[in-house]
Specification:
With 176 residues, the protein is α+β, with helices and mostly antiparallel strands. The chain has one domain (19-170). 17% of the residues lie in helices and 32% in strands. The chain has helices at 2-13, 123-130, 148-157; strands spanning 22-27, 33-38, 45-52, 55-64, 71-77, 88-93, 95-98, 101-102, 116-119, 161-163. A hairpin with a 2-residue loop joins strand 7 (95-98) and strand 8 (101-102). Helix 2 packs antiparallel against helix 3.
Length: 176
Amino acid sequence: MKHLLFLVLAFGLTPEIKAANTCNFVSEYYPDVTIEVKNQKAGSYGFGKLKHKNKPILDFSTGISNGYGGQYFSFKTLEKNAEGKTERVAWGKVFSIVGDQPSRGTPKNKQKSGNLRIFFPQLGTGYYYSLSNFNEPEKDGRFAGRTKAMNAVLGASEGFFIPDKVCEKYVFYRWD
């Protein structure tokens, strides 16, 4: 009985080791623009939000396609449309870099260590065209209603995002 009590006390007083609930990708040149990803325990996918100064702008997801498809990304609006659904703003294949080399297609004997970076082709174009409101031209965010946040997201969307140590697991094709 004493041994059981000792075990209960020992395990009850041991501080819990908790992983961070989220991790971040930070824009290489616009550090106010981040992608905060919910830290999944396992799996080949990640979900989160694209943010400007901690304010959510778009929903984000990434994962690995079945077969030879590689890593994909998707950005969606936060607000639901008239049908009650969010709309996809940009989607496609992820391009990742290790140091100065593409993480896919670099032969094993040519691979060098380096920092991880990730790029979302079509994010800039998709986000730019999502700002337009064709039904209400006076509210056209692409031109008349442009904000500093929109400009920062547009600038960041044309460049690389750098994962923090925890988010490196969401750069699926890498050798480091």
